[in-house]
Design a protein that fits this description.
This protein is mostly helical. About 85% of the residues lie in helices and about 0% in strands.
């Protein structure tokens, strides 16, 4: 197996991991957390936002930033190709709709929530903080979910654009 195929495999795997993470949040975690009382919700989100900052998440989240453009570059051929176009589209989607939304949307909300002291806040302040946080965070996460799934579909389309013999060699 060549380095090129390893890059393609890791590109697909890390893109799928992130799409799965955001999908799981959208269809289960956020729904379950939404049922909690205000203080419990905010406390749980603070804990989750702290816990997710770990090496495994960072590898999965940041790898597509490197691997998608590398896959596009390695798939380039004069005159263009479906593979290159799909990887390039996936790169733009991930940079803007996943990384950009996270860095400029979800992270500032997470940081503001992290600075909020639940233990000293009144019930009204806790309720207000949840209103400021929950709906915007969930909307932004839904954007990341949709865009990461679209990114994954373009990666899969790029991988399926390879001749059957190349895919057979990859699996051997």
């Amino acid at each position: 197996m060549t380095l090129y195929y390893l890059v393609l495999m890791f590109t697909g795997a890390t893109t799928a991991l992130i799409a799965g993470l955001f999908f799981a949040y959208s269809c289960s975690v956020n729904l379950g957390l939404g049922l909690l009382p205000d203080a419990g919700y905010l406390s749980a989100m603070q804990s989750i936002n702290r816990a997710i900052l770990n090496p495994v998440f960072f590898i999965a989240f940041f790898s597509p930033l490197l691997l998608l453009p590398l896959s596009a570059y390695l798939s380039y051929s004069p005159g263009g190709s479906v593979r290159f176009t799909c990887f390039l589209t996936a790169t733009v989607l991930y940079f803007a709709g996943v990384f950009g939304v996270t860095v400029f949307g979800n992270v500032p909300l997470n940081e503001a929530l992290d600075a909020f002291n639940i233990h000293t806040a009144s019930a009204d302040a806790i309720r207000a903080e949840r209103q400021v946080f929950e709906k915007p965070w969930n909307r932004l996460n839904m954007v990341r979910t949709i865009v990461s799934l679209l990114t994954l579909l373009f990666v899969l389309a790029a991988l399926l654009a390879y001749p059957k013999s190349v895919l057979s060699d990859l699996l051997d």
